[in-house]
Amino acid sequence: MQPRKLVIAFVALLLSAASLQGQGPFAPKVTGPLSQRVVAYQIDAKYLPEKHVVEATETLTYHNLTGKALDHFPFHLYLNAFQPNSTWVREAHRDGNFRTSTFDNGWDAKRSGSNDVISLEVVGMGDLTKQIKFASPDDGNPDDKTVMEVALPRPVEPGQDVTFKIKFRATFPEVLARTGYKRTFLLAGQWFPKVGVFWNGAWNCHQFHAMTEFFSDFGTYDVKITLPKDYVIGATGVQTNDTDNGNGTKTVAFHAEDVHDFAWTADPNFKVLESQFNGSVGAVKVRLLTYESHQSSWQRYLDVMQGTMKRFDEWYGPYPYAQITVVDPPHGALEAGGMEYPTFITGDTVWWAPKGQKAFPEVVTEHEFGHQYWYAMVATNEFENAWLDEGINSYTEVKVMDSLYGKNTSLLNWIGAQMGNAAEQRMSYLGVAETDPLSRNSYQDMSMGAYGGVTYGKTATMLLTLEAVVGQETLQKALHAYFMKYRFTHPTQEDFLRTVNEVAGQDLGWYWQQAVYGTQVLDYKVRRAESTRVDWANKDAPEEKKGETLYQTDILLQRLGDFVFPVVAEIKFDNGETIREKWDGQDRWQRYVYLKKAKVLSVEIDPDHQITMDRNYLNNSIATEPQRGAVQKISTYWLFCTQFFAQMLSWLA
Amino acid sequence: MADDSKGLVAAGASLVWRRQRVLWWVFAVNFILSALGTAATRNQLQQVLGQSLAGQPLTKGFDLGMFFELVRVPESNLFASHGASLHMGILFFLFMVFVTGGILTVYREDRKLKTGEFFGASGAFFWRFVRLALFSLIPFAVLGLALWGVNKLSNYIGDRTVSAQTGFYIFLAGAIVVILLALFVRLWFDIAQVRAVVQDEHKMWPNLWKALGISWRNVATLFRVYLCISGVAWVTLAVGLFVWAKLPPTAAPVTFLLLEFIILMQLLTRLWQRASSVTWYRRHAAMVLVDAADYTTPALVELVEPIAEMPATAKKTDGTAEERSDSQDARLAD
């Protein structure tokens, strides 16, 4: 071989080796570190599929950047939630869970999961396994083992590092609350002992609750997973190595930086599809792990990912990572669907999903990608302020879905029926409009329904309504500012509210007090719309004539709810004139009187339909002419249903 | 046998057409009862939406969000009167149980019955058909259980296979079988009803078993007829709903007419099945009478049993036919 050819061959070899070794953790134009890296996890795990168990060794290096000496460390052991007497199961049994039944038919052993810490050593301090104690800071439940604490023989001084070596076994339940197995599929979420967050001067390490999610510190993850070699695997971060062990297993290595959790999935039946999103910081690989039987959804997944990533990139800021992994769970694994982890999300679909409905896979995929911004990068405390991630994400879901699929058809446009994403959020909110303020600790909401309706629906509806005050563009700028300022940190709700105030250039305290800190309900009503001849008392008055007869028009608006909000009322007259009146809503009612040679046709509060928090749309308007269309249509459908039911029943005659 | 089926389908259709007054009456009662059942909802809607602009998204399209608002808001109380719809459905069922005797008599005699004759025949068979309807709950309950079993099985197998479709196809196959079996049960009970009318059979339990034997021995012909007519009903329903989905949202009168046409076709096809079964029974009863006389084709004797006073087969418009009907009615009065 000639020397030049040898050089070319060598370079080619290097390039192919580089590609085999995987890519860096960031998009091309991004260099780290992006966060204050508090933790560095190195985990060496072995998956035993027949037992649904992972045996692993975790090395955690914690950098004490708290400014205080730390003499004890709490850890989350989330899989211990899946035990009959845990706080999570008690709450799920009482209120249900987003993804789970209430276990009314008894506890099924297949639903059991656990994190067993076999040994815990602190480098330089020895084996502290016997120092492990379980704590229940939220409810004192002695049977809850989702938080363990380790007291150190000597404190870790500010600026110092401490390294834990933990041997543990993770036993997965049949898929339950975002984690577990189904047939050969495994979604490994919350599977390793994870240290709490030292936040606002104290450890923040809540028990696992049925109604909330997670909170953890940013750092780096180097994870090696050994599993049967026919398994296809995907995980947080990027793959850096894949070694055939020669014994029917392989070891796959992943690396992630500036993330605060690590999840992975594996299944020999996965089909891998890849595409690329070219954003403002370079190309991002979109890796979809799906199934043959979900073929009808493949393109839909990829399309919604492209559209969503483009809008987030343009509206809120760049996605800085090199890859996003999208997992399409298999049938029967619904509880693994619709979940977010850093650079790793799970969607959801059904093989028969009609294209006209966008709930699966579009909405769920969009929503979970949105969490890359509102959770993965802007890493708020999900235990306490779930509205800051789920709620803001539900608002941006509305904006993105409306932009992609049309405002009134972003959830459904099928067989003559339509529904927008905003309407879904509103419905979710209306059911629990007065139960809980957004500012309440999420896990302490009244019920699972209240948690869902308040956290997701109320926030989205509240922000949509805010557009009526500050404008859509201003709110978009505020979210952009909030993202850029607080990404890779743990902001509070006050940080968010302050940012919106600053960008809007006004103190919105009056709004936050009612919408965030309060449970006030917004409901305005047109009570009266009437035109009366001015000369009604004159028996000899000339015959009524359009354009010549003078009328007094009385309009009466009423505020039924205790939420004070400025509204616009649009009054239309039969001479084509339209008047818009602004009412600050401070008083309980407001009257408008007009003297015109025209009669009122209609009055409508919020004619632009921006105030989505208004509890009752039906009383927002009065038309003086009968409005028959909707009555006729629904009556016709209802009549048809009754007739059809009757004739079906008569089949038995 | 296929020709026989075709002939029966056509003859059944022809009979329904000739006696279409029955269809229109049944349709009218279905419509009136349903209209009564939904009147409260209509009034409620009128109160809430009659003067409000909020209904416009429902007029210009069908905004489910606004529909859910209606369902949710206490003032609209949309489904408060669903009980009335349910009750009217049950009332229509009872009405059909009542008039089936009259309808079968009309088809048997193929002539316009006087009101008194019709309701006389309806009343004469009412309690017999109530008993039959109660008996029919047994096989239908068995089929319901079978469907439940199919569902469990499909879930069990589907849960253990990688393909998401497997469970569905198992359920689909099982459901089709159950539906076909249900169609056979309907056919069986229809024959029992026809037999009760033609034979003036009073004992429904033995009648049921004889009807089963007849239905089973002639399953190829009868089932094909029923399946064919059911196919018309299903296709009409599917096409009707397809057209409905394509109609402009503001085309309210056309939508109303289309939906009513769908209902009319569902009722028509059911009466068509009944007319076909009556026609079949009449034809074969007549054959048995002839065959039984010379004993040349004993196999046919098993089709249906000989009838003592079987009316003539075709259009009876002359005085003789009236006499026969009178004698038949005299037997019904007994």
Description:
The complex is a heterodimer of chains A (653) and B (334). Chain A is of the alpha+beta class and 653 residues long. Among the domains of chain A are: 34-258, tricorn interacting facor f3 domain (Immunoglobulin-like, Sandwich); 388-515, Orthogonal Bundle (Neutral Protease, domain 2); 524-627, Immunoglobulin-like (Sandwich), CATH 2.60.40. Helices cover 27% and strands 30% of the residues of chain A. Chain A has twelve helices and 32 strands. Chain A has an eight-stranded mixed β-sheet, with no helix packed on it. A five-stranded mixed β-sheet of chain A has the order 19-20-21-23-22. In chain A, a hairpin with a 2-residue loop joins strand 24 (412-414) and strand 25 (417-419). In chain A, helix 9 crosses helix 10 (493-504). Mean pLDDT of chain A is 94; it is low at 11-21. The longest helix of chain B has 45 residues, at 115-159. By secondary structure, chain B is mostly helical. Chain B has helices spanning 2-18, 20-49, 56-59, 64-72, 82-109, 115-159, 165-199, 204-217, 219-246, 252-294, 298-301, 319-333. Classes of the chains: A alpha+beta (653), B mainly alpha (334). Chains A and B meet through strand 25, helix 7, strand 32 and helix 12 of A and helix 2, helix 3, helix 4, helix 5 and helix 6 of B.
Quick gist of this model?
The complex is a heterodimer of chains A (653) and B (334). Chain A is α+β, with helices and mostly antiparallel strands.
